[in-house]
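S.,

Sequence below, as promised.
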Amino acid sequence: MSTWYDNAVFYHIYPLGLCGAPKVNDYKGEGGGFKQLDLWVDHMEKLGCNAVYIGPLFESATHGYDTTDYKKVDGRLGTNDDFKAWVQKCHEAGIRVVVDGVFNHTGRDFLAFQNIIEKRNESWGKDWYCWVDFNGQSPCGDPFSYESWHGYAQLPKLNMGNPAVKDYLLDVVRFWVDEFDIDGIRLDCADVLDFDFMRRLRQLADMVKPEFWLMGEVIHGDYGRWANNETLHSVTNYELHKGIFSAHNTHNYFEMAHSLRRLYDKNYGICKNARLYNFVDNHDVDRIYDKLEIKKNLFPVYAFLFTTLGIPSIYYGSEWGIQGHKENGSDDPLRPAIDLETFENPNPELTAFITRLAHIHQTHPELVYGEYDELMLTNKQYAYARIYDGKSCITVLNNDEQDVQLSVRVPAGSACVDLMDEMAVEIQGNSISIVVPANSARLFYVD
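The prediction came back faster than expected:
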């Protein structure tokens, strides 16, 4: 059965950064971020995106992942009514909305943790967090110790062994659907979340809204443990993300092809039935522009992103090829404020290319449901087809700094069209003879 997320092209927004919100929340609730975010709905639609992952959104002390109130939109961005109206605006534009679910930890300002500070041994909150010990002391000076996420004392870890915690978080999800009409959740730190909780969340997802989508942040491991019929629909494809920029920098397309086989091979693929969330950069890693040694390789990189197996995603600003890398351990350069009304596009050619790819992806079911067929693979050239219902989309990548003449096998169909310029291409026997420009890609449709 086809779902909206099968055919999704995502746009990813880190709203506190995009809107230039203050780094520390004074809880006065005077933000007007959704006035800026309204402008981005039209931008996403023109770019060819039909889904947005936006987050973190809910009240927090600083960067958004130290949640203070799960049922209140961060006041630095606006109000609950502002977000509700924004979701409606997205839906009217045909864009589904997915938010961040930060369920592994909270901030210290969250009600349960404040209850520990106030009531100590008599608190109900002490059972909401892991390893609370009143014989210890925290790095923040509390007369008790507790487990935190990766040792960050500002992020006390929730106790998923407490049924009250699970029930509360599931109630939060119901609230988000009822109040805001969201279409899915991206689970922060899903690789350390309780599996029983994720199973219950999946059961709830199937009840609260048709086709409600669950995607988890998972970096390493067997993605099939999380992306399956019992827990989550999808996870972040960090394995392929690493392969994409590495393969282009080292002239080694075998790395990308190997990842696809390991993940999706019909016989031994570790998550062969999943549709993973693909990206070339996000709010936690350097921009793809910075990671690529040869900047022109942005074109074959994005051609691959939109035509390979999985769900493509664009991180805000990268459609213009903007720069951004971590400095002194800070993620701030990855999450810049951008005024859409005054921004001058430094790379309109790339933007037009990505826009064309997004529209191709949305209008060609071969790129959503098609089986993968590797047609040619060398260090510097890579051709593959996505075949569906007797028709195919063929992608040919070239990371060489020289143009290359290639003969590429056509696996299905008898008439070929170049998807970029819509010009006919002659099929000779069962192959096409083409020139692929340096650091570029060509796409073909065969029926």
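The chain has a mean pLDDT of 97.

Coffee later?
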